[in-house]
Task: inverse folding
């Protein structure tokens, strides 16, 4: 039971180390779901994927308890129920700034090692650049997907794409036969 | 560099234990590929997948050395270069017998444990049933895919399906605009 609140491709500056970085277009999704184990509770799920690298998967799962510690660490002023929208507002700021040559708000993904190679936790930072300094509005710790996670994620993508393709095949056939029929009738 | 020689859905009787079995339609592919590590050599790759269970993946990779031991164990009379075709001939026998109420040739997948749950090696057997006994023509040891194997396999499927879907979208659009145009011209 997941409720998707946001799903967009966003420019992300991936920083592997102090020396190496590259700009990527990364799919960022924000979901609220009800975790069933150990007991029912709301969870915010933020997921980063890259359609050009199917093994790229970073996830944050945050329940109310985790949020309280994040809130005190980063001095947040919102509560758990409004936090998803606050995150989305920040992401939309970054999206809006995308076209600017010097965007004011940018997303950084700071990771300790190259993707897939024993990568540890990484941080997705929403950074505002003002003339004085880089200001981190929010820093979220994301975990790289394990093989099991990636396997499950790809299976879901594949099922969804299969469903879409089947519908597309059917609708294309219907449209074609409909138009061919109308064409034949008109030509008579 | 893989050369696909055979790819068909075949009826397979999956036997989890002496007590439990179920009949499935399993995709069986036979490929010959050049393995690059540790050095270049030909490899026969047989893969079992199930489109209704995306995590179902069993693989056999057999090089010439493995084949020699299989040949002596099972008293085979063919050599490595003609073995792929012999396997395909047996699979086609099973396919031909599919429609019969009492098929003479059947495929059994004998596995020690339920799929995905710490499953060890399994055996794909080509079994002939004559009035006297079950005669195993060939028994191939297949390994269940690890999470990494399944992840890679699903990524390949997803890429191929994406490519197909993109082509389909384009061709459907072209056909529709072509027919719509012809319809408009005819109606004028």
Result:
């Amino acid at each position: 039971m997941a409720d998707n609140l946001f799903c967009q491709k966003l420019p992300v500056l991936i920083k592997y180390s102090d020396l190496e970085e590259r700009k990527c277009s990364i799919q960022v999704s924000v979901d609220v779901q009800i975790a069933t184990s150990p007991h029912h509770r709301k969870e915010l799920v933020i997921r980063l994927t890259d359609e050009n690298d199917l093994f790229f998967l970073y996830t944050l799962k945050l329940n109310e308890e985790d949020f309280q510690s994040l809130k005190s660490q980063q001095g947040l002023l919102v509560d758990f129920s409004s936090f998803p929208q606050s995150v989305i507002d920040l992401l939309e700021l970054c999206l809006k700034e995308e076209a600017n040559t010097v965007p004011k708000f940018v997303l950084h993904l700071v990771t300790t090692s190259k993707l897939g190679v024993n990568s540890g936790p990484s941080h997705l930072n929403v950074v505002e650049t003002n003339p004085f300094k880089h200001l981190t509005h929010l820093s979220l710790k994301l975990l790289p997907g394990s093989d099991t996670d990636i396997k499950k994620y790809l299976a879901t993508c594949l099922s969804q794409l299969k469903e879409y393709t089947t519908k597309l095949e059917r609708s294309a056939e219907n449209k074609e036969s409909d138009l061919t029929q109308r064409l034949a009738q008109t030509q008579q």
Observations:
- The mean pLDDT of chain A is 89.
